[in-house]
Amino acid sequence: MDRLFIAVESPRAVAAHLVGLVPAASGIRPTPVAQVHLTLRFLGECDAEQAGRITAALDTIRAEEFTLRVAGAGRFRGQQGSVLWAGLAPCLALDALYAAVTDALKSAGIAPERRHFRAHLTLARCRPTVPDALLRDWVAAHRELAVPPWQAHRFVLFESRLDQQGATHAVTGTWPLIAPDDAPTTASVPVSA
To answer: Pairing between strand 150-152 and 120-126?
Structure first.
């Protein structure tokens, strides 16, 4: 079974800059630069038949390109610690892509996500032992965080592979986003493993 998720990639230079802002402290594990992305939907464990249905459903999506802008930073808190993130500014075309992915997955028999979609880039995972004051101060210092905007040209189906060093992500398929003046094109571009 494969652990799958659908995402929009971020440029390496943007990811490196953002990860470079993460505090260097015990218990804080920065996200590897190559893994900084905007998750549209985490699917979890999927067998080959489910993965085929998901790929076929994603083939039906026609969505426009859009510009992503970092707009501040924050953290999610949970029992296993905190997640530091860079927020993304509201974007109607991103919302439309998220809705299209949700609808396509529903047609493939996958229930919609229960949690509200909050567009963000995960920058670090923090153990519960990290002092709360350190994390609060980091969020306060980066409330106005911004980097140059970038254009999203595609969305991606990733397989997440877990090993002793953590997760590695492998692209299993890509789907181009359509320039506003372009006609729809073939959607899926499979990638060999």
So the answer is: unpaired
17 is a catalytic site residue: no
Catalytic residue chosen out of the listed positions 17, 37, 153, 169:
37
Q: Does the reported pTM lie above 0.85? A: yes
Q: Which of 23-32, 39-48, 56-65, 166-175 has the lowest mean pLDDT?
A: 166-175
3-state secondary structure of 156: strand
Tokens coding 147: 């980097």
Indicate if the pLDDT at residue 118 is higher than 70. Answer: yes
Q: What is the pLDDT, as a whole number, of residue 186?
A: 44
Nearest to 155 by CA among 9, 15, 31, 41: 9
Output the CATH code of domain 2-190. Answer: 3.90.1140.10
Catalytic residue selected from 120, 142, 153, 169: 120
Report the C-alpha gap between 123 and 15 in whole angstroms: 8
Domain boundaries, the chain: 2-190
pLDDT digits (tens, 9 = 90+) for 89-109: 999 999 999 999 999 999 999
Our answer to whether residue 37 is catalytic in this structure is: yes
